[in-house]
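Supplementary Note 2. Why include the ligand at all?

Several targets in our set were suspected to adopt different conformations when bound, so apo predictions alone were not considered sufficient. For every target with a known small-molecule partner we therefore ran a joint prediction. The input for iron/sulfur cluster is given below.
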Amino acid sequence: MNNRQKTALILLGHGSHISPNTAGVVWDAVDNLRHMGIADEITGAFWKEQPHFRTVLSSISATDITLVPLFTAQGYFTQTVIPTEMNLNGQITNQGEKIIRYAQPPVYHLKIQQIVQARVDDAIRQYQLMPSDVGIAIIGHSTRKNASSRQSTEYQAGILQQKGIYGSVITAFLDDDPPIISIYERIDQPTIIAIPLFLAMGSHTTIDVPEAMLLPPNCNYAYVNNKQVIYTPAIGDNNDLTDLICDLARDVGAPLYNPHPPKSAWDYFPRGGWEAFQTRLMHDKSLIIGDLFITIDGVRVVDDDQATTIITSPAMLRKLIRENPFRPLMTAKGLPKGWFAPASSVDEVCAIIETVYPALISHLFVDENYQTTPINQTIRRQTGIYRQLVNLDTTMMHIITDEICGDCIRQPTWHNHRASPIACDEACNWWLSHALEKVEN
Ligand code: SF4
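The joint prediction is reproduced in token form.
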């Protein structure tokens, strides 16, 4: 019998309700790391999307867990939101028999400096520029809620400034001062190289920052306010991310395995709740979970006998069900049809379900001991805008919950105490975000 402690690696990202790319860069890294087999269970978790920071640990069966936050600032999310949502009390947290290691975000890692430098060098080479004619703007997100959120952007700008070869190097922020539009007043040089210090080409880097810079849509080169503007890719668009994640995990003592190829494309998934699910599947032979029809031979959408696309990898399945159109709530009703994911084992069946509905398996077939978090507790825990929901009255709560959760395959057990067909233990970010929208309107 193998008594080795099982390990898990969870990459934490922001996610988005608008663009699939924000979480997409995290899922790409998860896929790469699963190919390397460096931990027994590997997954992602998000603030905006499922699985959420709050619930992802319920999907993990391993006891030695390492969290790597993929944020480009050491600030509000890494110091407040994640520790609050995941009950962390420092770099090492013991929760029952589990040890949870919380890595540093990549902001100060040497590889980030190298990527930023490569963005500058590539632009200078491509457009045959003189460094002294160039003003560099490092653009960060930051937030007024946390004074240290801006420091990583200033740190990267400082490194370029010290080289003393560029016309100027400044910072600007999406959600802090100085604002992005100010780069045109503050840079005297004829050319601006703007580098978004974000890990993904998500909605901030493809919509919000270009708009604030007055760039035409889908344009990374333009003349604006009589200046030549070169807008570089985000810094996470790079294979170096995988090595960087391994370095950060090892820095907090993660016992990563040496890379070795997986036996199946569906290896190294979270395994929480798998045993009970597999026992049920072997007994019943087929199950319907949400929109999925599941047998031991594979998974497809219910009432979809015409499936023509055969799924061969998690990335292929995720892209098909998530991106076109973008489904920010993975458990929303109405999965795209036309595909079949064959499985050669019950483990593969579970990994397919985990890809479609992340962190859901441990919430299936629950009993009366199922723990839920009352909504007032969820709202009181909030440190940002969702705190405004504290004044939501009971009638509004019913209306909002019926409307939002009515489109989801889960039952809001935290609200109506019903656990069938699929339980939900607490209000998700989709609920909080839409409830706030309705209250504000
Ligand atoms: S039931 Fe409601 S709160 Fe739970 S995941 Fe679905 S939409 Fe979110």
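The mean pLDDT is 93. The CA atoms of residues 145 and 168 lie 28 Å apart. Comparable summaries for the other entries are listed in the accompanying table.
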